[in-house]
Write a structure and sequence with these properties.
This protein is an alpha+beta fold. The chain is built from 5 helices and 8 strands. Strands 1-2-3-4-8-7-6-5 form an 8-stranded antiparallel beta sheet. A hairpin with a 7-residue loop joins strand 3 and strand 4. Helix 1 crosses helix 2. The chain starts with a helix and ends with a helix.
């Protein structure tokens, strides 16, 4: 609701304040601006692109996504990209709650590990897993996030409705995969 009002107010201000030079039209055309001004919803397209497989995501981003390999407790439910970032979403399959894992990978030159996590906390704690320093946080002891960098890539994992021990166990497996890719 606030977004609609803000967009409508901005459009109305732009048109009434004479921001455009004489004879110039807004990029979207004046009729679209008038529609926004009277309360029509203005939607921004989602940056998330969905794919049918992990390989399709790899083809789209140019590298293999980090997967939850060999874990029969989780089922892959979404293969996605956001620009040049790979995002895989898993759901715990042997319980009836909403346990989810979201695993992201991006070229470190494109996105820092902390930004990749999408979790903006000031309470990150360094944890050493194998040879990798991983930053981990939780807001309530049930939802967790972690990020790290290994070689040319940034990684992050977000988990919901999980215990701390379970999260660290899953995280150790994922960090182990990234270390193996580097030859540790």
């Amino acid at each position: 609701m606030i977004k609609k009002i803000t967009c409508a107010a901005l459009a109305a201000f732009t048109m009434s304040a004479g921001v455009f030079a004489a004879g110039q039209q807004p990029v979207n055309g004046s009729s679209r601006m008038k529609q926004a001004a009277v309360g029509q919803a203005v939607q921004i397209p989602s940056p998330i692109k969905e794919y049918k497989s992990v390989q399709s995501v790899a083809n789209a981003v140019g590298f293999a996504p980090l997967t939850l390999a060999g874990n029969e407790h989780y089922t892959l439910i979404a293969c996605e990209t956001i620009d040049k970032m790979a995002q895989l979403v898993y759901k715990e399959s042997d319980v009836k709650n909403n346990n989810r894992l979201m695993i992201r990978k991006a070229a470190a030159a494109e996105l820092s590990p902390r930004a990749l996590s999408g979790y903006y906390s000031d309470n990150w704690m360094p944890v050493i897993i194998g040879r990798t320093v991983v930053s981990v946080t939780t807001d309530d002891g049930v939802n967790y996030a972690a990020y790290w960098r290994s070689g040319l890539y940034s990684y992050s994992v977000n988990a919901s409705e999980m215990t701390g021990n379970s999260f660290i166990g899953t995280l150790a497996s994922l960090v182990g995969q990234t270390e193996a890719e580097r030859g540790y």
